[in-house]
Every structure is written in C-alpha cells, then in structure tokens.
Amino acid sequence: MGASSSTEQVSVEQREAESLAASTGALPMLQKAFASLADPQTNTIPLHSLQQCFSLTFENPTSEATAMPPNFEGLLSNVGSSMVGVFFVAEKGGVSWIEFLRGYVKCCGRTSASASFNTLFRVFAMAVVKAGLPEKLQFDSYDADCKMSGFLVPADALMLLWLCYIMAWNSKDLESFGEKGDRHGLPDLRHLVLSAVSWSGEVGSDFNPWDFDILGTNVQLPAAKILMWALKTVPSLPDCFMQYVHGSIEKSFRSEKMQPSCSAVPDCSPGVECHNNLLNQGRAWAISLTLRSTLHGEMMKACFPSYGGGTNESLVYRSSLHGKGLNRFWSNVEGYNGPMLILVAASLGDVHDDNGNVRRWILGVLTHQAFENRDTFYGSSGSLYALSPVFNVFPSSGKEKNFVYSHLHPKGGVYDPHPKPVGVAFGGSVGNERIFIDEDFAKVTVRHHAADKTYQPGSLFPNQGFLPVEALILDVEVWGLAGKTAKDVQTSYKKREQLFTEQRRKVDLKTFGNWEDAPEKMMMDMVSDPHRVQREDR
C-alpha cells in the first residue's frame, strides 16, 4: 500500500515524504490511492495509470459569449500527462511511493502564493506545448519559486481561466461527472480577461472594453504583470488546481470506478433562469476567486443552482421581479441576518455600441452584516466590485468603517431642518458617498475614490473621471450568502410580522362596549347637529 509496516526499515527519505504528506492531512487517502493504482509486481504506479487518473476531457466545449480558441480541446486532453510530467518523477516501471508523495506535496502542499501560481502556470505551459500551440512562458528552474518569463495573449488568458473553471467544478461533484447526458457551455469570462489586459498596461488610452476582440488581438501580456494581477485580483485561482488534484486522486480508489472526468458544466437551463441574473456563472465564479472563507462555497451555490439544490434560493431581491424602490427593497431584505451581495446594473443612457445597444456596467458590493435603518454609516467589513465589463475588486482599506448606509423616510412626520439622504450607499461619508442609490432605485451616483477612505481606490466602471457620475439604474439584485438557515430565519420573521400586521388590522367590537354610550357617538351627534337638544340624565 505504500505505507511501511512496523517491522520494515523505513528510510529517511520515505519518513520525510510521509511527514510532509501527513501535514496536508491527505496521507490516508494517498495510501489508499497508491494501493489502487500501483502494480503489485513492481509496487509502482505505471505512468499511463497516473496520467489516466489526472486526465481531463471536455466534449465539444462551447461558449455563447466567446468563440472557442484554437486547440483548446487538445489543451484539455493533455492536462493529465502534463501534470505527471511536471510533478511526478518516474523510476523503473513507474512512480514509486516516495515520488508519489513528493508529487502530491508539490501540487497541494503548503507554499507561498506566488509558488502556487507558478505551479499552475507550469502545468498550463506544458499542456499548451503538447497541444501544438506556440510556447510563450519560460521558467528558469524546476523549483516552485522559480522565476517565470515570457508572455500571454488574451486568448491564452481565456484558456487558462476556462481550464481553472473546469477543474474547480470538476472537483465539486466528481460522482456526477460523466453521468449527466447533457453538456452546457462555458461561462463568459471576458470581464476577467479584460481585467488582466487593462492591468498589464499594454493597451492605449483608446481601450474600449465593450468592443475588445479577445481572440483577434495579439497584445502581449508580460508574465510578471499577469502574476501580479492574479495575486491581487484572483488570489484563490490556484485552489482550483489543488482541488482537482486532490479530487482526482480520491476518485481513484472509490468502489465504483469511473471513466476520466468528462466535465459537465453546472446546469444553467431556462428553468433556473441563471442566464437572466446579473450574478451569472462567470461573475459569481470571479467573485468566489477573491474569497477564502465560507462565503466561497455560498457564492458557488448562488452561481450554480444545481450545486446548491436546484433553485435560486439565495436570491433575496431583484428589482425587475419584486419591484423598484427602497420600500420594495426593504421588504425583501429585512430580517436577513448575514452577508449579502448587492449588484447594480446601470448605464449613462446615452452611450451605445455599434449595434445600438446600451453599454451598461455592473457594480457589486459584498456586505458582511444585515441592513439596518440608520441615518449614519455602519458595518464591520466589506468589498466593492467592478463586475462588468472589466472585473476588479476593492476590499476594505482599514482606514474608516463607512461600509453601509441605508436610511428610510423617518416615521412620525417630525420636521428636520437638515434631513439625511434617503437611500442606500456604500463608502464615503453622508452626503458624499462613493456609491449612492436613490429611494426610487432610478439613479445611482458614483463618486471618485478620493471621497472614500473605507474601500481601496480604483475605477468602478470604464473611463470613470474625477467628477461624480449619475447613471440610470437598469436592475438591482441582492443575494444572501449566509446559507439556508438565514433564509429560514428570515421567512419566520416575515411570517411573524405578517401575523402582527393582520392582528393590528382587526377590530374587536366587544372592547368598545355599547355604541349608544360611547363618547365617540356623542361627539359625532354634536358635529352633525350642534343645536340639537340633548336630554340629560339626572
């Protein structure tokens, strides 16, 4: 099985390799996998068996938003052999127990963030070469912390992101892959590719993200800048590779042997209306790459209904469904105690593309607390997102805590000479908010980051200037990220509030006694005929 017995002499190399594997918590799983994959005669894993274990196929990949880059399917078919060639050293007859452990630690062991990205890039670079595509990335050594040079073009960046997306979903539900008869297209990841392009600084001032041709542009994105962009914008991207390696090895010793993973992208059929959401697959996955907490899993559920139970139960509010306005918004978010993701689609209204379509952009806000009706800012943490057409994330700066502002009209009609703004805002200060949504949900005002010390600086939409911009709101969505428990608590809260409202509407006539003796009747009689003679009882 690869594990030594108590009577055997254990070498120092084996003890060290097992210690490193045990630090990842995967040593028992690796022992079972080695026993399942190894040849009993040689006690090594044949190369073809290990390549088969990591093989990844995707039949006829398609995407509605972007055409398939050439040889992308061939790249996927060479991922397994590339992984084995980069990380697993073959000896006579195959991969020994010690080299199997070392290879796993190279892929999934604890290491620095830059080394994790180098691991991912090395697999991608070798798969590209084996697929017959030009070699664009070079590495000065085989170490994890080696220096990477070269460049990628936008089409390469798209293939890398799609590869990570397939690996990520493949590792979520391995038993279902290969069993689903239908296949679904890959998500639109243009916003991530355009983010890398704009970060590289290799495009001019005339860069137009709405009309940018990813496959037809050969602008070179330097490897060093790609790495810096990935570390800042999508720090969890290497987790897709590590999860895929771990899941593939775990699958190898299951009782029901399955064929190589034939990925089926999560169901996004019209029945679940995933494609109609502002939070589509591509945007939700991009946001999940910025998270490392439990919110990552909840974001995956919000993006992929089939992963979360088959329905969009995480959707709390949508203006096109529940109605526009602060009151409609409040009636749907009130009682939800947990993190929420707010998305706002807006347009300047007079900016159109070549086909006459309105060029919209989408903002996102991640809050970690419930909404409160207050005339001051509140909150403990959060992040701003530019989601479309270019993706960017602006987490907390740590300087101020003006994360959320949500203020309804005060009750009672008391005159206030200095009324506070009525609406929803994020960042900045009262009256000078970075993002402000009016009470009708008709307009959103976006100010320059100089007005905000709560979130990190950056443009929330293309060509944002220094002056405030007032845009027309097209749609607003709110997604709950606290799981089913928070949704159930909110449902109970709403039922209780509805019960109280119905009770207040009911009038118990018995509490009023006899109407003839009621003072209200005497007052009404006096108003109707003030000169009427009233008999006084003595």
Automatic annotation (TrEMBL):
Residues 290-482 form the TLDc domain. PROSITE patterns: TLDC (PS51886). InterPro entries: TLDc_dom. It comes from the Eukaryota. PANTHER family: NUCLEOLAR PROTEIN 7/ESTROGEN RECEPTOR COACTIVATOR-RELATED, TLD-DOMAIN CONTAINING NUCLEOLAR PROTEIN. This is TLDc domain-containing protein.
